[in-house]
Design goal:
single chain; about 180 residues; mainly alpha; Rossmann fold; 2 domains; two-stranded parallel sheet; two-stranded antiparallel ribbon; about 10% strand
């Protein structure tokens, strides 16, 4: 039975997985093992079934949000917190631009919109700057009603220096400064 479980896991197509079928097969196999399991293995099998259910639920959220098709896209969405339960609508959400992709809020505060931060100082090529510009567009369009954009006049660097900052070129492109 365990060999069959491993075959099921190894046979999944990482680019276009059929997760509902995959979960059903694993769930059936695990439930069959429960009927013959010793007491010490029973708790582990039940935990595995619970984790499988949680995986199916996360996959459903992933697909509903249209975040991709592959297991790699799923893993990235998990890492970015995009599959977490919807937060309390009456609470404050602290997030990155990337985690807010596809979501909207009534009020958005976009901080540190200065050169070297947005766009990132490491973005040197036209392609990298365009990717940063796209991220800025995503950030700005997350607001349904109000957006507050700030940038510091000075910033203390990690090594202790204080540096004068200038507004992001993206703000200038939007005629926001």
């Amino acid at each position: 039975m365990q060999a069959q479980l491993l075959k099921t896991v190894q046979s999944i197509d990482a680019d276009k997985p059929n997760i509902p079928k995959f979960v059903t097969e694993l769930e059936t196999a695990l439930k069959n093992l429960v009927s013959t399991a010793q007491d010490e293995a029973l708790a582990e099998l039940e935990r595995s079934i619970q984790e499988l259910t949680a995986f199916r639920n996360c996959w459903t959220v992933f697909k509903r949000k249209g975040l991709g098709e592959s297991l790699l896209s799923f893993r990235n969405a998990m890492a970015l917190g995009q599959l977490a339960d919807d937060p309390n609508p009456h609470a404050l959400t602290l997030s990155t631009v990337h985690t807010m992709k596809g979501l909207e809020k009534d009020i958005v505060f976009l901080t540190s919109m200065c050169e070297g931060v947005f766009p990132d100082y490491r973005a040197n090529t036209k392609k990298e700057i365009d990717e940063e510009r796209n991220s800025a567009f995503v950030a700005v369009t997350r607001a349904r009603r109000w957006i507050f954009i700030t940038f510091p006049q000075q910033r203390k660097m990690p090594w202790g220096d204080v540096r004068t900052q200038s507004p992001s070129r993206f703000l200038q492109e939007m005629n926001a400064v």
